[in-house]
Design goal:
The protein is of the alpha/beta class. The chain contains 8 helices and 7 strands; from the N terminus they run H-E-H-E-H-E-E-H-E-H-H-E-H-H-E.
């Protein structure tokens, strides 16, 4: 299992109702169904990935995330997941609001554009970085809204999203003491668990 999906799976309670946005080939949902007994659904637009989901016994709906989530009722799920996809949607703020409308909580993961290797690459080469954690060239990347951890937390503050839990990892998805102390500089990927604004 992909390291980021393994970390995400650990944040899901057994038996939860889960929606995975941009579920890919269904790897995470297959694991959650077999190991945690979740009632899960995935949204995916790639036909090959949809076929892979069906072959794995994963419930999948063909849907473009940018078209919105209006087809789901309020509080339909315990957890809505989006792993390394938020930066590729047209309106991340609207997507987060919708995730928290249909789910009690949501988990969002994304790469950090303020990671020290990105900063060094820009400073030394004067070009957009291409690395293991940002593996695309500027002209063929699916990422249209690159952000930093600080950017994301400002978005959460502006929209009154409650950050229930957060942690950052390096490019190999390991935690390090320096990441805890200087997350926006040494963290390559973020994992945020969000809830609705406290009443």
């Amino acid at each position: 299992m992909r390291p980021d999906l393994k970390i995400t799976a650990e944040l899901i309670k057994p038996g939860a109702r889960v929606l995975d946005l941009g579920c890919g080939d269904g790897e995470l949902l297959e694991h959650l169904q077999s190991h945690k007994g979740v009632n899960g659904y995935g949204l995916e637009i790639n036909p090959e990935n949809i076929t892979n989901c069906i072959n794995k016994g994963v419930n999948v709906i063909e849907q473009d995330l940018d078209s919105g989530l209006e087809n789901f009722a309020d509080s339909s799920f315990d957890m809505v997941i989006m792993t390394e996809t938020l930066q590729a949607v047209k309106a991340p703020d609207r997507m987060l609001r919708e995730m928290l409308r249909i789910g009690e909580q949501c988990i969002v993961t994304f790469p950090n554009f303020a990671y020290w290797r990105c900063r060094l690459h820009l400073a030394m080469r004067g070009r957009m970085p291409v690395s293991r954690h940002l593996p695309h060239n500027w002209y063929d990347t699916p990422n249209i809204h690159l952000c930093t951890f600080k950017d994301f937390e400002q978005l959460c503050d502006d929209n009154h999203f409650n950050i229930v839990e957060r942690f950052m990892v390096d490019a190999s998805h390991n935690t390090r003491p320096l990441i805890n102390r200087f997350p926006n500089f040494f963290g390559a990927f973020a994992f945020y668990r969000l809830g609705r604004e406290p009443s």
